[in-house]
Amino acid sequence: MAGLTGNAGKAPTGTEVWGNTCLLLPRKPRVHSYRNIFTGEALSVREESKAALLLADVFKIFPVAVLESVTA
């Protein structure tokens, strides 16, 4: 983790570390929202050219995530 931030004392979280890096999802995902079970944060799939989750959003406040789908 220290390699991402250049500082062993700082967790790799947020836009400063992840920029516009994203996790690509299947072409037409059935799920459009996820919840991080560690933080409770809600995450929305971005569907510009491809369906994706921005890692800056996924790791916004905590450097580990387990996501569960949220159905309406």
Describe what you observe in this structure.
The chain is α+β, with helices and mostly antiparallel strands. The protein has one domain (2-69). Helix content is 17%, strand content 26%. It has helices at residues 2-5, 15-18, 55-58; strands at 22-24, 33-36, 42-44, 46-47, 51-54, 67-69. The strands form 2 sheets. It has a 3-stranded antiparallel β-sheet. The chain has a 3-stranded antiparallel β-sheet with strand order 3-2-6, with no helix packed on it. It starts with a helix and ends with a strand. The model has no long low-confidence stretch (mean pLDDT 85).
What order do the helices and strands come in, and which of them pair?
Elements: H1 2-5, H2 15-18, E1 22-24, E2 33-36, E3 42-44, E4 46-47, E5 51-54, H3 55-58, E6 67-69
Antiparallel strand pairs: 1-5, 2-3, 2-6, 4-5
Q: What's this model, at a glance?
A:
With 72 residues, this protein is an alpha+beta fold.
